[in-house]
Amino acid sequence: MHKARISIPTENWIAMMFFAALLAGVATLFSALLITIISGALSVVAILFSFVAAALISVLTGLLVLYYPAMAASERKKKIENALPFATIYLNTISRAGFPPQDLFKMIAKFKEYGEVSEEAKKISNEVHALGLDLPSALNNAVARSPSNSWTELLAGMKTTITIGGDLGQFLSEKAKGFVADYQRRLQEFSNFLTLMIEIYITLVIVGAVFFIITTSIMVSIGGVPVALVKALNYAIVLVGLPVMTAAFLLMIKGASPME
């Protein structure tokens, strides 16, 4: 919860999970029964199906609420690690320019291009300049709420270097090199993944849809398959199947992209 930047107490979140699950289940049950009554299909089987559907939706809703903080923390982790190489290079530059350590995070917080890193830097800067904490204590707080191991290592290393009086510029330079190398590796992996996804998409979605339409058309010409059924299936593939599959592929690519 802390790493996902959700300020709701854990017990309140659990209560909200049960409430959302109950609300979703009741709404699903009511909607399913209303549809069966309006359609005139009310029966024991329809009622049983409505209860099963309501239970399933209720469980899925509860699980979604339960695991949302973990998903949010994971998304923050990704955004931090994607911006970290560039943010560390900037930290190294201004550190070598002679700015004091307590001003580094204040300056990087002004660059919204760094996304979650800027937000974390803003919190550190506010704790130092507004709340009066010393920088090592503010860095400890940032480490405690960090969802990213790389960001944690950077902050812990900066704290140690500042505490013992080491060369902060040299430390940031070494970390920047490591983060850039890791970013280049992830870019190469994403390039390979993108190539694979394009090949799968063309083969499975485009060629598969065309093959299915041609095959069903041949089956209609031979006979034995209702024309209305084939038309309905073809329309379903073109109007629903292709958009849904395309959206799924785009979401997978977006989720794997290191360029956010």
Topology readout:
Elements: H1 10-39, H2 44-96, H3 101-108, H4 116-129, H5 135-144, H6 149-164, H7 168-222, H8 227-256
Helix pairs in contact: 1-2, 2-3, 2-7, 3-4, 4-5, 5-6, 6-7, 7-8
Global structural class? mainly alpha
State the order of secondary-structure elements, H for helix, E for strand: HHHHHHHH
Tell me the count of domains: 3
By DSSP (H or I, 4+ residues per run), the number of helices equals 8
User: Which outline best applies?
Assistant: flat
Strand content: under 5%
Overall average pLDDT:
86
Give the number of DSSP strands.
0
* Radius of gyration, CA atoms, in whole angstroms: 27 Å
Describe the structure.
- With 260 residues, this protein is an all-alpha fold.
- It has three domains: 10-73, no CATH class; 79-183; 184-256.
- It has helices at residues 10-39, 44-96, 101-108, 116-129, 135-144, 149-164, 168-222, 227-256.
- The longest helix is centred in the last third of the chain and has 55 residues, at 168-222.
- The radius of gyration is 27 Å and the shape is flat.
- It starts with 9 loop residues before the first helix and ends with a helix.
- The model has no long low-confidence stretch (mean pLDDT 86).
Describe the structure in brief:
The protein has helices at 10-39, 44-96, 101-108, 116-129, 135-144, 149-164, 168-222, 227-256. By secondary structure, the protein is mainly alpha-helical.
